[in-house]
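>> received
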Amino acid sequence: MKRYIHVLLVILMFAVCSCAKEQAPPKEGGIAPDFKLKNIAGEEVRLADLRGKVVFLNFWATWCPPCREEIPSMVRLNTAMAGKPFQMLAVSIDEGGKEAVESYFKQAGVTLPALLDPQQATGKRYGITGVPETFIVDKKGVILKKIIGPMDWSDPAVVKYLDDAIRQ
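>> returned
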Protein backbone atom coordinates (compact mmCIF):
# COMPACT_ATOMS: atom_id res chain seq x y z
CA MET A 1 0.00 0.00 0.00
CA LYS A 2 2.83 2.40 0.87
CA ARG A 3 4.38 1.70 -2.51
CA TYR A 4 1.17 2.76 -4.27
CA ILE A 5 1.03 5.98 -2.26
CA HIS A 6 4.63 6.80 -3.21
CA VAL A 7 3.92 6.11 -6.88
CA LEU A 8 0.79 8.26 -6.70
CA LEU A 9 2.73 11.11 -5.08
CA VAL A 10 5.41 10.97 -7.78
CA ILE A 11 2.73 11.05 -10.50
CA LEU A 12 1.03 14.01 -8.83
CA MET A 13 4.33 15.90 -8.56
CA PHE A 14 4.98 15.45 -12.29
CA ALA A 15 1.44 16.51 -13.11
CA VAL A 16 1.74 19.69 -11.04
CA CYS A 17 5.14 20.55 -12.53
CA SER A 18 3.97 19.99 -16.09
CA CYS A 19 0.97 22.25 -15.54
CA ALA A 20 3.06 25.20 -14.33
CA LYS A 21 2.61 28.12 -16.67
CA GLU A 22 5.52 29.79 -18.36
CA GLN A 23 5.89 33.45 -17.58
CA ALA A 24 3.72 35.49 -19.92
CA PRO A 25 5.56 37.84 -22.27
CA PRO A 26 5.67 41.45 -21.09
CA LYS A 27 3.14 43.93 -22.38
CA GLU A 28 3.09 47.67 -22.86
CA GLY A 29 2.86 49.19 -19.39
CA GLY A 30 4.57 46.19 -17.81
CA ILE A 31 8.08 45.92 -16.44
CA ALA A 32 10.71 44.97 -19.00
CA PRO A 33 12.38 41.70 -18.01
CA ASP A 34 15.96 42.22 -16.92
CA PHE A 35 18.67 40.46 -18.90
CA LYS A 36 22.41 40.16 -19.08
CA LEU A 37 23.91 39.75 -22.56
CA LYS A 38 27.37 40.21 -24.02
CA ASN A 39 28.11 42.88 -26.57
CA ILE A 40 30.39 42.21 -29.53
CA ALA A 41 33.38 43.36 -27.45
CA GLY A 42 32.57 40.58 -24.95
CA GLU A 43 31.39 42.93 -22.17
CA GLU A 44 28.24 42.11 -20.22
CA VAL A 45 25.33 44.54 -20.50
CA ARG A 46 22.38 44.44 -18.06
CA LEU A 47 19.13 46.22 -18.70
CA ALA A 48 18.85 47.11 -14.99
CA ASP A 49 22.12 49.06 -15.26
CA LEU A 50 20.48 51.36 -17.80
CA ARG A 51 17.78 52.71 -15.47
CA GLY A 52 17.58 56.47 -15.89
CA LYS A 53 17.82 56.13 -19.68
CA VAL A 54 15.20 55.46 -22.31
CA VAL A 55 16.19 52.16 -23.94
CA PHE A 56 15.54 51.25 -27.56
CA LEU A 57 15.63 47.43 -27.53
CA ASN A 58 15.56 45.98 -31.04
CA PHE A 59 15.64 42.23 -31.77
CA TRP A 60 17.06 41.54 -35.23
CA ALA A 61 19.11 39.14 -37.35
CA THR A 62 21.63 39.58 -40.16
CA TRP A 63 19.68 37.16 -42.41
CA CYS A 64 16.42 39.15 -42.04
CA PRO A 65 15.75 41.50 -45.03
CA PRO A 66 13.35 43.83 -43.10
CA CYS A 67 15.95 44.07 -40.30
CA ARG A 68 18.67 44.98 -42.77
CA GLU A 69 16.30 47.53 -44.30
CA GLU A 70 15.75 49.37 -40.99
CA ILE A 71 19.39 49.31 -39.76
CA PRO A 72 20.44 52.55 -41.54
CA SER A 73 17.54 54.44 -39.92
CA MET A 74 18.54 52.98 -36.54
CA VAL A 75 22.06 54.34 -37.07
CA ARG A 76 20.60 57.79 -37.89
CA LEU A 77 18.35 57.63 -34.80
CA ASN A 78 21.26 56.65 -32.57
CA THR A 79 23.23 59.64 -33.92
CA ALA A 80 20.26 61.98 -33.38
CA MET A 81 19.92 60.81 -29.76
CA ALA A 82 23.64 61.11 -28.92
CA GLY A 83 24.32 62.94 -25.66
CA LYS A 84 20.82 62.27 -24.31
CA PRO A 85 19.81 59.75 -21.61
CA PHE A 86 19.11 57.19 -24.32
CA GLN A 87 20.57 53.77 -25.08
CA MET A 88 20.07 51.81 -28.26
CA LEU A 89 20.53 48.03 -27.99
CA ALA A 90 20.42 45.96 -31.17
CA VAL A 91 20.01 42.37 -29.94
CA SER A 92 21.13 39.90 -32.59
CA ILE A 93 19.51 36.47 -32.52
CA ASP A 94 21.98 35.13 -35.09
CA GLU A 95 23.24 31.64 -34.31
CA GLY A 96 26.58 32.78 -35.77
CA GLY A 97 26.92 35.24 -32.86
CA LYS A 98 29.70 37.82 -32.86
CA GLU A 99 31.20 36.73 -36.19
CA ALA A 100 27.88 37.07 -38.04
CA VAL A 101 27.20 40.53 -36.60
CA GLU A 102 30.74 41.85 -37.17
CA SER A 103 30.75 40.52 -40.73
CA TYR A 104 27.39 42.15 -41.50
CA PHE A 105 28.38 45.49 -39.92
CA LYS A 106 31.62 45.53 -41.92
CA GLN A 107 29.85 44.65 -45.16
CA ALA A 108 27.09 47.24 -44.55
CA GLY A 109 29.47 49.90 -43.27
CA VAL A 110 27.47 50.48 -40.07
CA THR A 111 28.05 50.30 -36.35
CA LEU A 112 25.45 49.93 -33.62
CA PRO A 113 25.58 48.92 -29.96
CA ALA A 114 24.91 45.23 -30.57
CA LEU A 115 24.20 42.48 -28.04
CA LEU A 116 24.31 38.76 -28.73
CA ASP A 117 21.41 36.39 -27.99
CA PRO A 118 22.24 33.36 -30.19
CA GLN A 119 20.12 30.94 -28.12
CA GLN A 120 17.29 33.53 -28.15
CA ALA A 121 16.78 33.21 -24.40
CA THR A 122 16.16 36.95 -24.01
CA GLY A 123 14.02 37.06 -27.14
CA LYS A 124 11.85 34.28 -25.70
CA ARG A 125 11.49 36.14 -22.39
CA TYR A 126 10.22 39.13 -24.37
CA GLY A 127 7.86 36.90 -26.35
CA ILE A 128 9.17 37.89 -29.75
CA THR A 129 7.41 36.14 -32.59
CA GLY A 130 9.84 37.18 -35.31
CA VAL A 131 12.28 39.89 -36.23
CA PRO A 132 12.47 42.79 -36.21
CA GLU A 133 10.65 43.56 -32.99
CA THR A 134 11.40 46.66 -30.94
CA PHE A 135 10.60 47.63 -27.37
CA ILE A 136 10.84 51.18 -26.06
CA VAL A 137 11.60 51.03 -22.33
CA ASP A 138 11.28 54.13 -20.15
CA LYS A 139 13.76 55.37 -17.56
CA LYS A 140 12.07 53.30 -14.83
CA GLY A 141 12.15 50.03 -16.80
CA VAL A 142 8.52 50.09 -18.02
CA ILE A 143 7.72 49.06 -21.59
CA LEU A 144 6.19 52.07 -23.33
CA LYS A 145 5.83 50.55 -26.79
CA LYS A 146 6.23 47.26 -28.62
CA ILE A 147 6.64 47.58 -32.37
CA ILE A 148 6.46 44.54 -34.62
CA GLY A 149 8.11 44.91 -38.00
CA PRO A 150 10.46 47.43 -39.59
CA MET A 151 10.16 51.20 -39.32
CA ASP A 152 11.94 54.31 -40.43
CA TRP A 153 13.41 55.07 -37.01
CA SER A 154 14.86 58.39 -38.14
CA ASP A 155 11.39 59.87 -38.73
CA PRO A 156 11.08 63.15 -36.77
CA ALA A 157 7.94 61.81 -35.03
CA VAL A 158 10.00 58.95 -33.57
CA VAL A 159 12.69 61.34 -32.32
CA LYS A 160 9.98 63.53 -30.75
CA TYR A 161 8.37 60.49 -29.09
CA LEU A 162 11.71 59.46 -27.58
CA ASP A 163 12.52 63.03 -26.50
CA ASP A 164 9.11 63.18 -24.78
CA ALA A 165 9.83 59.88 -23.03
CA ILE A 166 13.17 61.26 -21.83
CA ARG A 167 11.42 64.32 -20.36
CA GLN A 168 8.97 62.15 -18.35
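>> The longest strand covers residues 54-60.
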